[in-house]
Amino acid sequence: MSDLNVAIVGATGAVGSVLRDVLFERSFPIANLRLMASERSAGMIIGTALGDIEVENLDLADPTGIDIALFSAGGDRSRQHARRFADAGAVVVDNSSAFRMETDVPLVVVGVNDATATEHNGIIANPNCTTMVLMMAAAPLHRAAGLRAMTATSYQSVSGTGNRAISELTQQAQWFSKTPEALFDGTWEEPEVDVYARPIGWNVLPFAGSEVDGGYTDEEMKLRDESCKILDIPSLTVEPTCVRVPVMVGHGVAATMWFERSVSPDEAADLISQAPGVEVWADKVATPLDSAGRDEVLVSRIRETLSEPGGINLWAVGDNLRKGAALNAIQIAELLV
Ligand SMILES: NC(=O)c1ccc[n+]([C@@H]2O[C@H](COP(=O)([O-])OP(=O)(O)OC[C@H]3O[C@@H](n4cnc5c(N)ncnc54)[C@H](OP(=O)(O)O)[C@@H]3O)[C@@H](O)[C@H]2O)c1
Questions:
Q1: What residue's CA is closest to ligand 1, atom 45?
Q2: What is the dihedral of CA 83, 42, 97, 240, to 10 degrees?
């Protein structure tokens, strides 16, 4: 296969900047790289291993000649432009939620359901970053014992919301650090909020995403619906709660899983250790800080369920910008190459 013409759409964003790094780290075969973003960034020069590249305005970009387009500019941009790129001959790997649940769009976690990647119509979807982390731990257990039910609570970092949220946490951490005593007696003053409705600095927001039906958030619905699609278990029951925590990078998930047969913690640890892209940390608890900048999803605290023996409780954590987004998107492109 000769080198490919690659475009990153959303190249200036939190995911886009990691896409730029990971493409070169993995020596992806690139003939020409184009970087696209909004009108605001058009004309900006970004240094890459292929030299300086000028950012193009997505609205004006001609997709002719692009082989692989890595979209990471939000659902509205994907809905507006992804089909236009695919019709011009590109395979689009889309990081947004725009197409994930469409029946003719594969939803691929590389290492879990790779074979589905080829069944595309020009667009392949990259799953939600929290779902991705959970699937890396759940899939090896499902393959061996048949997953039937899952309760999952996420601890999602701010980079999962993008660059503005990273700035918001940085600013609020500084704001609250000026008067630490106020955090003890409740006299803290409301900081400026931009991305999140409530302060994220030194706080926890038990509501990640936007409200949809029945008091659930869209993040929670993605965790349920995408898990069913990726594992191909329409009857899987999932009880999701998504929480935003004051962490820069790394989404953690505490999950309880029930199977068609009993699974012991030792068997679970063996199965997960043998799977690609995931590590069991038995002697040291894996935290978001450990996951940041790493390609592997880390799994710790594998325990037998208490209420009814035979199920598994575990903790999984992964870099949401890498395996949760950029790395998996590039791994999908590698499957096609
Ligand atoms: N962050 C994660 O962990 C993560 C994980 C999985 C999936 N995703 C998905 O990836 C996408 C990007 O997320 P992010 O975290 O990288 O967000 P971000 O940091 O806010 O970056 C957004 C990117 O989209 C571009 N963009 C915004 N409006 C645009 C427009 N009208 N036309 C063209 N480009 C536009 C921005 O360009 P400008 O700089 O010019 O504004 C920027 O490059 C989202 O769909 C998100 O759901 C994110």
A1: 74
A2: 180
Residue nearest to atom 24 of ligand 1 (CA): 73
Q: What is residue 153's three-state secondary structure?
A: strand
Q: Is the CB of 16 under 6 A from ligand 1?
A: yes
Q: Is the CB of 320 under 6 A from ligand 1?
A: yes
Q: What pLDDT, on the 0 to 100 scale, is given for residue 146? A: 98
Q: At what angle do helices 218-231 and 129-145 cross, to 10 degrees?
A: 40
Q: Could you give the residue numbers annotated as active site?
A: 129, 251
Read off the pLDDT of residues 43-64 as tens digits, 9 standing for 90 and up: 999 999 999 999 999 999 999 9
Please work out whether the CB of residue 272 comes within 6 Å of at least one atom of ligand 1. no
pTM: 0.97
Q: What torsion do the CA atoms of 68, 73, 74, 80 make, to the nearest 10 degrees? A: -70
Ligand 1: atom nearest CA of 37 is 34
- Tracing tokens 């699937």 back to the chain, one arrives at 135
157 CB near ligand 1 (under 6 Å): no
| Alpha carbon distance 291, 285 (integer Å) | 11
